Amino acid sequence: MTTPASTSISRQIPLNEINQKVQSCKECHLSETRTNAVPGEGSSNATVMIVGEGPGRQEDLEGRPFVGRAGRLLDELLVSIKIDRKSVYITNIVKCRASTRSSNETALQQQARDRKPTSEEITACAPYLEEQMRIIDPQIICTLGDTATQFILEKHGLKTGNISKIHGRTYSTGRVKIAPMYHPAAALYTAELKDVMKKDFRRLSGLLSQTTLESIG
Ligand code: SF4
Fold first, then answer.
1. What is the number of alpha carbons within 13 Å of residue 69 lying toward its C-beta?
2. Neighbouring C-beta atoms of residue 20, cutoff 10 Å
3. What backbone phi and psi angles, to 5 degrees, belong to 119?
4. 117 vs 78: CA distance, rounded Å
């Protein structure tokens, strides 16, 4: 599926504006402990948008999504279904790292641990993701883990459930298909989950082929 270059440019400009807003955002307390905000990256013409929970330590240091160990597994899964990471758009529900570190402690003073973002943090950050989805207008949203899945399904008025029960399913809403998956971080410590993720990604590949055929037809 090809998209005119003019469309690419008209999407990239507002995406860049969001990136700038995110990088200077102070809408929630996560701004006080972040090193870098992580707006997201990838193709402005992406058919597939991948949405995780939030940046971890490595992402916070580099300002890029999914570049730590979980990111490397995500890359491996994408390669296994012949999808180029640059052809999708990767982002998170919250754009700054949620950790146990407080604002008056340096990283050296405390070994911060990642935590789930609170509902207040998710609500504060949601407009950025909503705007990214509106601009990119993906046909498939792949959600990684419980937090992202719950947010995206509820946003589309769909009933959600634990990721262990609903991973690998496809939810259709209008022209958008939602494909929940386990978060790759969970599969780092459980070999069985990695096999489950490989299977779910093969389903994603099939969904992408079907979506592309429908678009051509
Ligand atoms: S998490 Fe989102 S709302 Fe909170 S400071 Fe970062 S960009 Fe702003």
1. 6
2. 11
3. -65, -30
4. 26
What pLDDT, in 10s, does the model give residues 55-82?
999 999 999 999 999 999 999 999 999 9
Collapsed DSSP state (helix, strand, coil) of residue 212: helix
Q: Above pLDDT 70, what percent of the chain?
A: 89
Does any domain span residue 16? no
* CATH number of residue 72's parent domain: 3.40.470.10
If you measure from the C-alpha of residue 157 to the centroid of ligand 1, how many angstroms do you get, rounded to a whole number? 24
Number of domain units in the chain: 1
Is the CB of 49 within 6 Å of ligand 1? no
Q: CB 203: neighbour CB atoms within 10 A?
A: 16
Residue 18, ligand 1, Cβ within 6 A = no
Residue nearest atom 4 in ligand 1 by C-alpha distance? 28
> Is residue 97 lining ligand 1, measured as CB closer than 6 Å?
no
**Does the pLDDT of residue 49 top 80, yes or no?**
yes
Q: Which domain holds residue 142?
A: 29-216
**Separation CA 176–CA 47 (nearest Å):** 10
Round the average pLDDT of the chain to a whole number and report it: 92
Distances in whole angstroms, Cα of residue 181 to Cα of each of 19, 124, 127: 26, 24, 23
> What is the Å distance from ligand 1's center to 19 Cα?
11
- What is the model's pLDDT at position 2? 46
Q: Is residue 21 part of a domain?
A: no
Instruction: Report yes or no on 19 lying in a domain.
Output: no
Asked whether residue 123 is domain-assigned, the answer is yes
